[in-house]
Write a structure and sequence with these properties.
This is PhoP regulon feedback inhibition membrane protein MgrB. The chain is mostly helical. The protein is built from 2 helices and no strands.
């Protein structure tokens, strides 16, 4: 049972870390006015980067 709880916690932690890294990358791209492929992939906030 402890192993299952540990695995669930690790999955949740990784999801949170992934979302935060996408959010930070999106903010950096917006501030820099950078429209590279990576920035288009992580564009989650408004206004969206035009295609």
């Amino acid at each position: 049972m402890r192993t299952l709880i540990f695995i669930l916690c690790m999955v949740g932690y990784l999801l949170l870390l992934g979302y935060l890294s996408v959010f930070v990358t999106d903010k950096i791209c917006e501030k820099a006015g950078n429209y590279t492929k990576i920035c288009r992939i992580v564009d989650i906030s408004e206004p969206h980067i035009p295609k």
